[in-house]
C-alpha cells in the first residue's frame, strides 16, 4: 500500500511502545516489524543508518527515527486526537517535560534498579529527586496532557509496567504512594485506559525477559 | 516589524544555546531585551525562571519563561508565524530537521569537548575519526535537507542552520586551540562553504561573539575543566 505505516520495534522496548501507543491513540493502522537487536535486519540498517536503532517509523516508504521526533511527526500527520496542545506555550511545556524525562529520568531510574550497594543508594536518592521534580508537572492535572493522554504521558509510559517490574525484581520501591501521590495516581489512571491496556506488553512476559538480564554483582 | 510584546532573553554571550534564541528572534524581526546573566553566582531571576535546570537561555514572553534552546526556537517559530518560517512546512521535512538537531547536540558536538580533553595522541586520533565521520554525515544531510539551496533550510536559514550554526564559533575555537581542521573545505566543501555563509548572515553575525574573545574564554574554561578532572 502506498501509504502503509510500519513500525520497526522490539516487543519489550518502551521507546517503540511510545510510537505504537501514539498510533493507537489516533486509530492509525500499522504493521509491526519485530527486530532481533542481535541480528538487525537490512531494512533497519537501511532506514536508520546513523543510529541503527529502533524505533523507526516508515510511512509511505519514508523512514523517521528517534521516538520524540516520530511522535511529533505522527501528531502533525494524523490530526485526530491531538497529542500536543495547540497553544505554543503549552507545547513548549510538554516538550520540556518530555525531554526532562528522557534526559534526566530514564537512565537514573534504570540504574537504580540494576546497580547494587553504595552506588545503588546514590542512584535511588538521585532518582527520587528527579521523580519529585516530575511530580510537580502533574499539579492540578489527571494526566500530564490534562484530561486526556498527551505527549508527556506517552513519553513517561515506561513507568508502567516496565519500572514496576524492574522495581519488584530489584526489591526496591521508588514510587511510594506517600512520597509521590500524583505519580502513583497517574500510574493507576494511565494503566486503566483501554488504549494502554490493549497495546502494552504483558507484565509476565516482561518479568520473564528481565530475569534473563543479569545485574552486576 | 513585529510589535514589542515584552520579549526578553536571559543569557550570556559565550553560550551557543543563547545564540539560538537570539538568531531565531532576529530572523523573525522581533525586538527583545537581552538580560546578561551573572552566572557566578546564578541570578535570582535565573533560579526562579528555570528552577529545574538553572541554565540559560530563558526566553520570556508575556511574562512566561520558556527554557531549553531547541524548545525556545520551536516556540518562537510557532508564535511568530507570519515571518520567516524556521522549521519546514512538510511534516516529513520537519522530522528530518528535528532528527539532525538532536544528532548535532547529542552525538556530534560532544566530540569536540572530548577531543579537547583527550590526553594521548591515540585518544585524539580516535575522537578525530568520529568528528570526521559526523561531519561527513552532516555534509550529506546538507544535500538532503537543503535540496540544492544555500542552507540546510533550503532557500532560507532554517532550524538546522541555527542549531549547527550556533556551534560554529566554538568549532573554530577548537580548531585554533587543537590544530585540528574540522570544517575542512577539501573534505567537506558544502559544509565549509555553508559555515562561511552562516557567519556572514545578518541574523547570526550580530550575536556571534568575536573569535579572540572566545579563544580567551575557551582557554580559561579548558584550564578549569582539566584541573577539575585531574583533581579527581
TrEMBL record, chain A:
UniProt key word Glycoprotein: no
Instruction: Cite the Gene3D superfamilies for this sequence.
Output: 1.20.1050.10, Glutaredoxin (3.40.30.10)
**Sorted alphabetically, which keywords does the UniProt record give?**
Transferase
Q: Which family does it belong to?
A: Belongs to the GST superfamily.
Out of the domains of life, which is the source? Answer: Eukaryota
Query: Which organism's genome codes for this protein?
Result: Spirodela intermedia (Intermediate duckweed)
UniProt record, GO biological process: glutathione metabolic process
**What is the name attached to this protein's record?**
glutathione transferase
The question of whether Transferase is a record keyword is answered with yes
Q: What is its EC number?
A: 2.5.1.18
Which reactions is this enzyme annotated as catalysing?
RX + glutathione = an S-substituted glutathione + a halide anion + H(+)
Looking at its record, which EC class is this enzyme? Answer: transferase
Gene Ontology annotations for the cellular component aspect, listed alphabetically: cytoplasm
Q: Which GO terms describe its molecular function?
A: glutathione transferase activity
* Residues annotated as domain GST N-terminal: 3-82
Annotated GST C-terminal domain ranges read 87-209
Traced from the root, the source organism's taxonomic lineage reads: Eukaryota, Viridiplantae, Streptophyta, Embryophyta, Tracheophyta
Recorded hits in Pfam families, A to Z, give: GST_C (PF00043), GST_N (PF02798)
TrEMBL record, chain B:
User: What GO terms describe the biological role, i.e. biological process, of this protein?
Assistant: glutathione metabolic process
Q: Where is the GST N-terminal domain?
A: 5-84
Q: Which Pfam families match?
A: GST_C_2, GST_N
What enzyme class is recorded for this protein?
Answer: transferase
PANTHER family per the UniProt record, alphabetical? GLUTATHIONE S-TRANSFERASE U17 (PTHR11260:SF615), GLUTATHIONE S-TRANSFERASE, GST, SUPERFAMILY, GST DOMAIN CONTAINING (PTHR11260)
Task: Spell out the family assignment given in the record's similarity comment.
Answer: Belongs to the GST superfamily. Tau family.
- What's this protein's name? Glutathione S-transferase
* Taxon lineage: Eukaryota, Viridiplantae, Streptophyta, Embryophyta, Tracheophyta
